[in-house]
Amino acid sequence: MNAPTKIDTSAEALMATAIRVLTMDAVQAANSGHPGMPMGMADVAAVLFNRFMQIDPSCPKWPDRDRFVLSAGHGSMLVYSINHMLGYADMDMDQIRSFRQWGARTAGHPEYGHADGIETTTGPLGQGITTAVGMALAERMHNARFGDDLVDHYTYVIAGDGCLMEGISHEAIDMAGHWQLGRMIVLWDDNKITIDGSTELSTSVDQKARFAAAGWHVQEVDGHDREAVAAAIEAAKKDPRPSLIDCKTVIGQGAPNKAGSHKVHGAPLGAEEIAASRTALGWAHEAFTLPKEVYAAWQAVAARGREAREGWEARLLCAEHGGAFEKSLAGPDKAAMAEAITAYKQQLSADAPKVATRKASEMALAVVNATLPNAIGGSADLTGSNLTLTKGMSPVSKDNYGGNYIHYGIREFGMSAAMNGIALHGGFFPYGGTFLVFADYARPAIRLSALMGLPVAYVMTHDSIGLGEDGPTHQPVEHLASLRAMPNLNVFRPADVVETAEAWEIAATSEKTPSLLALSRQNLPCLRTEHRSENLTAKGAYVLREPEGGRDVTLIATGSEVEIAMNAADELARQDVRAAVVSAPCFELFAAQDEAYRASVLGDAPRVGVEAAVEQGWSPLLGARSAFVGMTGFGASAPADDLYKHFGITAEAVAAAAKKLIR
Ligand SMILES: Cc1ncc(C[n+]2csc(CCOP(=O)(O)OP(=O)(O)O)c2C)c(N)n1
Ligand SMILES: [Mg+2]
Questions:
Q1: What angle do CA 452, 163, 450 make, to 5 degrees?
Q2: How far apart are CA 82 and CA 66, in angstroms?
Q3: What was the pLDDT predicted at 5?
Q4: Distance between alpha carbon 405 and the CA centroid of its chain, in Å?
Q5: For residue 643, how far is the Cα from the chain centroid?
Q6: Distance (Å, rounded) from C-alpha 587 to C-alpha 489?
Q7: Given this model, what pLDDT does residue 3 score?
Q8: How far apart are CA 248 and CA 234, in angstroms?
Q9: H helices of 411-539, where?
Q10: CA of 190, nearest ligand number
Q11: How far apart are the CA of 80 and the centre of ligand 2, in A?
């Protein structure tokens, strides 16, 4: 149907054909996968890499490489086939042969960290393009600090109809247009097909008008006309605005009978259609064998990149700020952070300020930001509530990429995905704030932070009914449980100013685990009045108060409820009941401690858990003889003290629960 009538045998055409053939063969061998997108975008990708991309497969992490993000992650064979042909050492033909199999780097969707040259995990549609916004912004911010000699690259994205339908794409487009990220170039695979069929089933939007309205440079090309694609990319690079290139393509291009249909989106073509495609494409080679000239053409791209990288290295050697540049890309200075936070904690324990933990976070951030020059703060329009802006920070804008505070706007999901992109780009430690209840709006990007193992910090204030009058829409109840359920995310709920400083030390020096700080709106007393240089929060939970003569009961609490547990212990002491109090600011870190430590903290006595949230997730801390004082439903609008009384989260209730257990 859509097969080219005359077979183009130019080197670039062969480069594209090879993507198509490797894709159909790998998907066929796996008996699963998505051939349509890589086949449809093969021409665009061949042009992009052949004529534009600056990457060096022998040095995949070269900091000034162009970034390529396959936002339409289901088309993963596009990346794998390209990276194989470019000569990435970890992407030999066996990897292509074992596409989607156990142990292979060629996972169903591109996974960051599984193979070189994969800049981010994609698959959840819309997140790739938004993560790319973060990368493109980081490029400009790094450029503002170190100049064109060291930082001068582009961020290219292939996005599909699905990426552009997702709501997050709106946030991405708006941010990129607002920040005028002129080095971001999106190639839209405009094939008018999604899984269910034609895009006419589900959308009528004028995408080009949408991008233009957000300040983008917009072009349209025939995605199978390589010269037109090249001219459009050329023009996009010249234009100071971010660019959308609407590439009109045919999904599954090259498959004579199935191209253009949603049937090629996500199913193997079948042996017959593959044979027919080989004929149509004029391809005589067997599955998983490529002619030398194809490798030669792709490896010329690699050679060009290597030369560019070598030139860059020479510039780095004589760059004035070369040392600072390298430092910005290295891991966090843990020793400096430990020293700064320890000194700060000592002061706190002496002064014992009674502040909300959101305020404590602002105070700790002043120390963090003074110690880590590459911290980039931000908030989704709640700066004054999240207290994420510390003294001396200046806003990042299209006129000031040298700033270090990002006004992300009311875009929690966009902020979080962009922070992932900033972290992936390198050079910066991003943190950003919103209300804890809106973690739900950000959750899919938090999940990718965790899956990719990115050191991103989420500052989530107003963490319970303790926020009071704003009412149940704003009061998190199930959020802690749902966030704790996420693998590789450290959820901190510090109890006071000292624990907050400790949590920030961990968050700012983490290398493979994102952190989320759940912080109170209401003031909390300083409970850690005795200075300990050891970071107790790093143990996840620890004994804050141990009664003399053994325990009758152990009260375990987090955040604002630790104060309640302490008061309950006082109350119990008056009644001759010996209560220990355990503060548990981070369940994940506690679970990582050895058995002996955990047993010593939890003890043998009955336990009462206290948290102004649902009980789910508490069972590892509680045990057989236990009770939980917390929430069982939504909150309400009223002053915080009234709410705590109404919902029965009080020292008296905790003491009563304890007494019932030990009776
Ligand atoms: C957030 C999200 N929702 C749903 C899916 C499942 N999904 C994968 S591809 C796809 C259709 C995407 O259409 P398009 O981007 O046009 O890709 P094409 O069919 O053209 O390859 C869907 C719904 C997903 N990967 N991510
Ligand atoms: Mg499509």
A1: 15
A2: 15
A3: 56
A4: 18
A5: 35
A6: 10
A7: 47
A8: 18
A9: 412-425, 439-452, 479-484, 497-509
A10: 2
A11: 20
CA distances, 90 to each of 30, 113, 115, 558, 619 (Å) = 19, 12, 7, 45, 43
The two most distant CA atoms of the chain are separated, in Å, by 93
Q: What percent of the chain has pLDDT over 70?
A: 99
* Number of other CB atoms surrounding residue 102 within 10 Å: 5
Q: Which atom of ligand 1 is nearest to the CA of 124?
A: 26
Q: What is the pLDDT of residue 663?
A: 78
Strand partners, 245: 187, 219
Tell me the helices (H) and strands (E) count for the chain, helix number first: 26, 20
pLDDT at 6: 76
Ligand 1 contacts (CB < 6 A) are: 36-37, 72, 74, 123-125, 160-163, 166, 189, 191, 193-195, 251, 265
- The helix/strand/coil state of 15 is helix
Q: Is 249 exposed, middle or buried (0-12, 13-18, 19+ CB in 10 A)?
A: buried
Cα–Cα nearest to 183, from 73, 72, 67: 67
- The b-or-e profile of 36-54 (16+ CB within 10 A means b, else e) is bbbbbbbbbbbbbbbebbb
Query: What CA dihedral angle connects 428, 434, 439 and 440, to 10 degrees?
Result: -120
CA distance 216 to 175: 11
Element (H, E) at 533: none
Whole-angstrom Cα Rg for the chain: 28
Q: Say if residues 527 and 583 touch (Cβ distance below 8 Å).
A: yes
The DSSP output letter for 378 is E
List, by residue number, the catalytic residues: 412
pLDDT for the residue 1: 43
Weakly modelled stretches of the chain, pLDDT under 50: 1-4
| Ligand 1 atom having least distance to the Cα of 189 | 20
CA 190 to centroid of ligand 2, rounded, Å = 6
CA of 539 to the centre of ligand 2 (A): 48
For tokens 């010593």, the residue is 600
pLDDT for 52 equals: 98
**Token pair recorded at residue 51:** 């004529």
Structure tokens at 590: 């506690």
Name residue 583's beta-bridge partners: 542, 557
The residues, any chain, with a CB within 8 Å of residue 207's CB and separated by 6 or more, are 164, 188, 190, 244, 246
Cβ within 8 Å of residue 390, ≥6 positions away: 362, 365, 366, 369, 377
Quickly count: other Cβ atoms within 10 Å of residue 460's Cβ.
32
**Sign of the alpha-carbon dihedral angle for 16, 17, 21, 22:** negative
Ligand nearest to the CA of 162: 1
Residue identifier of the C-alpha nearest atom 23 of ligand 1: 195
Alpha carbon of 223 to ligand 1 centroid (Å): 19
What is d(CA 287, CA 293) in angstroms, rounded to the nearest whole number? 16
**pLDDT at residue 260, as a whole number:** 97
Amino acid in position 228 = A
Question: What's the pLDDT at 354?
Answer: 98
Candidate from 44, 125, 269 with most ligand 1 atoms within 8 A of CB, to mutate: 125
Beta-bridge mates of residue 590: none
Which one of the ligands is nearest to 264 CA? Answer: 1
Tell me how far the alpha carbon of residue 202 lies from the centroid of ligand 2, in angstroms: 12
CA 432 to chain centroid, in Å, comes to 12
DSSP SS3 for 518: strand
